[in-house]
């Protein structure tokens, strides 16, 4: 299964509940910031940092070993999103060491 977190939110679904119920079957997670008015997938620099942190916390604490896809459509959005993900993963590890 592929869990598209942002699509779940757009449909008012609880992505965490979907993840919890299907974590053993989810192999890919799509993640990006809020959509622009034109429907473009924005980078994570446009998302609330607490939301990004909650996603990374859920993924890391579950032992998820699948693929996390940054579903953005520009180099700037990709590299900024990757930087934010890297920071959150690093921070997650420090909280438990």
Quick overview:
By secondary structure, this protein is mostly helical. 51% of the residues lie in helices and 11% in strands.
Main attributes of the structure:
mainly alpha, 97 residues, 11% strand, three-stranded parallel beta sheet, 4 helices, 51% helix
Notes on the structure:
With 97 residues, the protein is mainly alpha-helical. The chain is built from four helices and three strands; from the N terminus they run E-H-H-E-H-E-H. Helix 3 (49-62) packs across helix 4 (75-95). The protein starts with a strand and ends with a helix. Helix 3 (49-62) links the parallel strand 2 and strand 3 (67-70). A three-stranded parallel beta sheet has the order 1-2-3. The radius of gyration is 13 Å and the shape is globular.
Topology:
Layout: E1 2-4, H1 5-10, H2 15-22, E2 28-31, H3 49-62, E3 67-70, H4 75-95
Helix pairs in contact: 3-4
Radius of gyration: 13 Å
Shape: globular
Query: What is the makeup of the main sheet?
Result: 3 strands, parallel
State the helix count. 4
Strand percentage lies at 5-15%
| Intertermini distance | 32 Å
Please report the total strand number as a whole number.
3
Query: What value does the average pLDDT take?
Result: 90
Unreliable residue runs? none
Class of secondary structure makeup:
mainly alpha
Spatially, the strands of the biggest sheet line up as 1-2-3
Instruction: Bin the helical content.
Output: 40-55%
Q: What is the succession of H and E elements?
A: EHHEHEH
């Amino acid at each position: 299964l592929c869990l598209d977190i942002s699509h779940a939110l757009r449909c008012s679904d609880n992505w965490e509940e979907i993840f919890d119920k299907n974590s053993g079957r989810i192999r890919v997670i799509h993640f990006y910031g809020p959509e622009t008015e034109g429907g473009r997938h924005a980078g994570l620099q446009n998302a609330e940092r607490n939301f990004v942190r909650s996603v990374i916390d859920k993924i890391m604490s579950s032992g998820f070993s699948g693929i996390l896809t940054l579903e953005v459509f520009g180099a700037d959005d990709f590299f900024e999103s990757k930087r934010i993900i890297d920071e959150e993963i690093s921070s997650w590890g420090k909280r438990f060491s």
